[in-house]
Design brief:
This protein is mainly alpha-helical. It folds into 2 domains: about 10-60; about 65-114, no CATH class. The chain contains 4 helices and no strands. Helix 2 crosses helix 4 and helix 3 runs antiparallel to helix 4. Residues about 1-10 have low confidence and may be disordered.
């Protein structure tokens, strides 16, 4: 999965364990359940951090023309002209990507705020 495709949704771990708890063993023990939830949260945090690093590296490798294209596309997706109702987590992902693109453009000296 490319990092630029999106982020994971906040997970309801209790519902997840209710559906898939058999794969993790006996979930009736509260200590075991808490340890399993902590492990799942850690795994999700590491996956998200890895995706962010991958996206940052992908943006750093982009040529200038591609940076402008990504910026224009992201701005269009965030605008009302897109005429689509998009979930809030996707909008947050677009804002994060736009911020990373602007940071890279500023680092290269293409974009300056005065």
């Amino acid at each position: 999965m490319s990092a630029s495709t999106g982020t994971t949704l906040p997970r309801d771990y209790a519902a997840y364990l209710a559906a898939y708890g058999d794969a993790y063993g006996d979930m009736s023990d509260p200590v075991k359940r808490a340890e399993t939830i902590a492990a799942l949260r850690r795994r999700d945090a590491l996956t998200l951090a890895s995706a962010c690093r991958e996206l940052r590296a992908e943006i750093a490798r982009m040529p200038i023309g591609k940076l402008f294209t990504v910026e224009r596309t992201t701005l269009h997706q965030l605008s009302d002209h897109c005429r689509t109702v998009r979930p809030e987590h996707i909008r947050r992902c677009d804002l994060h990507r736009l911020r990373m693109v602007h940071n890279e453009m500023t680092r290269r000296g293409i974009l300056t705020f005065k």
